[in-house]
Amino acid sequence: MKHYEVEILDAKTREKLCFLDKVEPQATIAEIKNLFTKTHPQWYPARQSLRLDPKGRSLKDEDILQSLPVGTTATFYFRDLGAQISWVTVFLTEYAGPLLIYLLFYFRVPFLYGPRYDFTASRHAVVHLACACHSFHYIKRLLETLFVHRFSHGTMPLRNIFKNCTYYWGFAAWMAYYINHPLYTPPAYGDEQVKLALAVFLFCQLGNFSIHVALRNLRPAGSKTRKIPYPTRNPFTWLFLLVSCPNYTYEVGSWIGFTIMTQCLPVALFSLVGFVQMAIWAQGKHRSYLREFRDYPPLRSPIVPFLL
């Protein structure tokens, strides 16, 4: 059996960082990363990006050496992805913050609205309902992170957590300040508007959860297998007939419901920004599905049926 020689160069400077002798043809990129770490412990595998071209795409951990377009002496280019943090930790931090921050405003802790309002309660029922819905949403997200989601990538750059938390925590504080403010004005159309909005919110929350469970069931534990998601017997998953990312569709629907319920401008802006970001993610995933699966259903749109 012939063995490979592997040299790893810095993608920026072309400096030789490592030379590996007698590497098995069946070795995966993940195994090569582990060998590289032995000579450079500061670059643990999750920090490494190995590629065939300095400006090319990162190779997948499951790629096999002998299946790559390289000779018996393979040259890989290394980029440092920076300090990494697990996706689970990121999500727990992102979602726990808004939950706690919103409750601080709901209970009107001191220094938020002035001494006369410390620990007082709003007289408007919609304020209490909004708190229950907001808390339910983020508790659901926390539980899904722990017990439902299966991540194709174990980590993300540590620097991203500061950006993400600024977005989630900042908007949560902005929304909560106005919804729980002593001068808050209830929706213009009263209880009927609130009831309609609550129905939309709960419907979309259940739909979002159903999609997450369906996506979890597509990927066996510990694998990175990708399959085309299809509707199941659960009616909430039938949205897969029309869009590639119905979890985002339902998520946006939830926040539209919350916007109608509270009739609050910061909530509307959060919904709009969230929709733009999720539309970008959905379009990326949609393109990925089309590249990977030739038989991908042609009727599907990324996030909004027939439109986007």
Automatic annotation (TrEMBL):
Top class in the EC scheme: oxidoreductase
Domain 3-oxo-5-alpha-steroid 4-dehydrogenase C-terminal: 155-308
Pathway recorded for this protein: Sphingolipid metabolism; Lipid metabolism; sphingolipid metabolism; Lipid metabolism; fatty acid biosynthesis
Membrane topology: Multi-pass membrane protein
SUPFAM superfamilies per the UniProt record, alphabetical: Ubiquitin-like
Superkingdom field: Eukaryota
Domain TECR-like N-terminal span(s) in chain numbering: 5-80
Gene3D superfamilies: Phosphatidylinositol 3-kinase Catalytic Subunit, Chain A, domain 1 (3.10.20.90)
UniProt subcellular location: Endoplasmic reticulum membrane
Pfam families in the record: Steroid_dh, TECR_N
An annotated Gene Ontology molecular function: very-long-chain enoyl-CoA reductase activity
Record field: catalytic activity: (2E,7Z,10Z,13Z,16Z)-docosapentaenoyl-CoA + NADPH + H(+) = (7Z,10Z,13Z,16Z)-docosatetraenoyl-CoA + NADP(+); (2E)-hexadecenoyl-CoA + NADPH + H(+) = hexadecanoyl-CoA + NADP(+); (2E,7Z,10Z,13Z,16Z,19Z)-docosahexaenoyl-CoA + NADPH + H(+) = (7Z,10Z,13Z,16Z,19Z)-docosapentaenoyl-CoA + NADP(+); (2E,8Z,11Z,14Z)-eicosatetraenoyl-CoA + NADPH + H(+) = (8Z,11Z,14Z)-eicosatrienoyl-CoA + NADP(+)
BP GO annotations: very long-chain fatty acid biosynthetic process
EC number of the protein: 1.3.1.93
Coiled-coil regions listed in the entry: none
Protein family: Belongs to the steroid 5-alpha reductase family.
Functional note: Involved in both the production of very long-chain fatty acids for sphingolipid synthesis and the degradation of the sphingosine moiety in sphingolipids through the sphingosine 1-phosphate metabolic pathway. Catalyzes the last of the four reactions of the long-chain fatty acids elongation cycle. This endoplasmic reticulum-bound enzymatic process, allows the addition of 2 carbons to the chain of long- and very long-chain fatty acids/VLCFAs per cycle.
Record protein name field: Very-long-chain enoyl-CoA reductase
Organism: Phasianus colchicus
Source taxonomy: Eukaryota, Metazoa, Chordata, Craniata, Vertebrata
Gene name of the encoded protein: TECR
